[in-house]
Each structure stands twice: as structure tokens, then as C-alpha cells.
């Protein structure tokens, strides 16, 4: 993968699936809400922009990123939801807590994705400081919320390609 491909904000958009009948759940951490709201906005607008219906997008808030796993699990258990996107910001360096939270959420989201057999997207920023977070949530480095939504769309399409024959 070239470095240009790593910024998914300039994603490849050819061959994207029809998501007009797909349902998405966005789970948003309230901790660092000034940034998580921007991630949500980016993810929501990307889903809408690529054809999702507003009534097919649900949102649930959780207090902090640590709770993203359970919030996402609850949505992922619903058979009508096609993909879940977990959005949070854990600032490194402010506290050793970040290591515990980041690892727990990364592992938790991996686990519930496999358990529920559907995409659960890790949209958690782990920057060194607030400025880096702001830069990645609608700032100079794009919006990781957009990328999380695009990842969800692509994984929904891949699942259909593999299982719908
Ligand atoms: N939640 C976040 O989403 N981002 C953080 O940067 C963050 N830092 C925390 C630092 C400390 C010392 C504590 C105790 C919690 C922090 N949380 C953070 C909240 C955490 O995700 C969770 O909501 C709480 O630990 C309750 O389970």
C-alpha cells in the first residue's frame, strides 16, 4: 500500500455497494465530545453521501471510549443492523489509562465483530494531544470519521460479495 493509499479520506470509490437498504449504527463516546461530534458528523455525512437513507442510520452515545465495546455489541446483536461504527478519542500521554482503554477497545471491537459476524469499525483516535485529534477530525489531516464510514461501506459490500451468490 503506498502512503497515498493510507489516507482513506482519498479513498478508492469505484465498485462501492448499493447501501440504500443497509442499516448502520454509530456509537459515539461523549468523552472529548468536541472531537467525537466532528467524527460523527464526518461519518454520518459520508454514509448519506454514498447513498444511505437517514432513517437507516442510528446513533447511540456512550460515556467514554471504554464503553464503546458494549454499546457496539448491543447494536451488532440486532439482526437488522449491517454495520456498526465506534467513534472515540483517547488522548495519549494525559494518563496511563489510555493504554488500557485503547487496548481494551481495540480487542473488544475485534471480538464483537467476529462474534456477531458483521463489520464493527474501530473509529477511535489515539493522538498524542488534542491538536492532533482536531487535525484528524475535520482538520488538516482529513476526518477519520469519514474513513470509518467508508470502511463500513466497503466491508458491507465485501460481505455481500462473499455470501450472496
Ligand atoms: N475516555 C475517552 O473516551 N477518552 C479518554 O481520553 C479518556 N481518558 C480517561 C482517563 C481516566 C483517568 C479515566 C478514569 C477515564 C478516561 N476515559 C476516557 C473514560 C473511559 O473511557 C470510561 O468511560 C471510564 O473509565 C468508565 O468506564
UniProtKB/TrEMBL annotation:
Its EC number is 2.5.1.78. The keyword Glycoprotein does not apply. The active site is at residue 97. It catalyses: (2S)-2-hydroxy-3-oxobutyl phosphate + 5-amino-6-(D-ribitylamino)uracil = 6,7-dimethyl-8-(1-D-ribityl)lumazine + phosphate + 2 H2O + H(+). SUPFAM superfamilies: Lumazine synthase (SSF52121). One of its GO terms (biological process) is riboflavin biosynthetic process. GO terms for molecular function: 6,7-dimethyl-8-ribityllumazine synthase activity. Pathway: Cofactor biosynthesis; riboflavin biosynthesis; riboflavin from 2-hydroxy-3-oxobutyl phosphate and 5-amino-6-(D-ribitylamino)uracil: step 1/2. InterPro entries: LS, LS/RS, LS/RS_sf. (2S)-2-hydroxy-3-oxobutyl phosphate binds at residues 94-95, 136. It is an enzyme of class 2 (transferase). It comes from the Bacteria. The keyword ATP-binding does not apply. Keywords: Riboflavin biosynthesis, Transferase. GO terms for cellular component: cytosol; riboflavin synthase complex. Gene3D superfamilies: Lumazine/riboflavin synthase. 5-amino-6-(D-ribitylamino)uracil binds at residues 31, 65-67, 89-91, 122. Belongs to the DMRL synthase family. Catalyzes the formation of 6,7-dimethyl-8-ribityllumazine by condensation of 5-amino-6-(D-ribitylamino)uracil with 3,4-dihydroxy-2-butanone 4-phosphate. This is the penultimate step in the biosynthesis of riboflavin. HAMAP family: Lumazine_synth (MF_00178). NCBIfam families: lumazine-synth. This is 6,7-dimethyl-8-ribityllumazine synthase. The gene is ribH.
Amino acid at each position: 500500500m503506498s502512503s497515498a493509499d493510507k489516507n482513506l479520506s482519498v479513498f478508492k470509490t469505484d465498485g462501492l455497494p448499493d447501501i440504500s437498504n443497509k442499516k448502520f449504527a454509530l456509537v459515539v463516546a461523549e468523552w472529548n465530545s468536541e472531537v467525537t461530534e466532528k467524527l460523527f458528523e464526518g461519518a454520518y455525512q459520508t454514509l448519506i453521501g454514498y447513498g444511505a437513507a437517514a432513517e437507516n442510520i442510528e446513533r447511540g452515545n456512550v460515556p467514554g471510549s471504554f464503553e464503546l465495546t458494549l454499546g457496539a455489541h448491543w447494536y451488532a446483536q440486532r439482526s437488522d443492523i449491517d454495520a456498526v461504527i465506534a467513534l472515540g478519542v483517547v488522548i495519549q500521554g494525559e494518563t496511563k489509562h489510555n493504554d488500557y482503554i485503547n487496548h481494551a477497545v481495540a480487542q473488544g471491537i475485534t471480538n464483537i465483530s467476529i462474534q456477531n459476524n458483521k463489520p464493527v469499525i474501530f473509529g477511535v483516535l489515539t493522538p498524542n494531544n488534542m491538536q492532533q485529534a482536531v487535525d484528524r477530525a475535520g482538520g488538516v489531516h482529513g476526518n477519520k470519521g469519514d474513513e470509518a464510514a467508508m470502511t463500513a461501506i466497503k466491508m458491507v459490500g465485501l460481505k455481500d460479495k462473499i455470501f450472496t451468490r
